[in-house]
Amino acid sequence: MPNRGTGRGKIGSKAVPYDVVVVGGGPAGAVISWALARRGFRVAVLEREHFPREKVCGDFVEPRGLKIFEQMECGPALRATSLLPVTHVAMFLQAQCAYRGRIPFYAHNANLPPHGYIVPREQLDEALLNSAKRAGATVFEACAATGVAREGRHMRVSVRNKADPLSFYARLVVGADGVRSTVARSVGLLCDDSRYTAVSQRAYVGGVSTDRGEAAFFFDDDLFPGYGWMFPMSGGRANVGVGILSETRDRCKVAVPQLFQNFIEKLRRLHPECARIRLLSRPIGGIVKTYGSAGPNHFDGGILVGDAGCFVDPITGEGITPAAESALLAAPTIVATLEKGEVGAQSLSQFERDFRRYFDPAMQYLDFCAAVMRNRHLREFWLTAARRGCEKAATDPEFARAAGSAFGGMEVLSSSIFGHIFIKVIEDICTEGTDVALDLLRGKVRMPMSWTRGITSWTWGWWQSALHDPFWHYSWSVDVLKKWTRVSSAMRLQTDPRAHGPSSFF
Question: Quick check: bond before 2 cis, omega within 30?
Answer without folding.
Answer: no
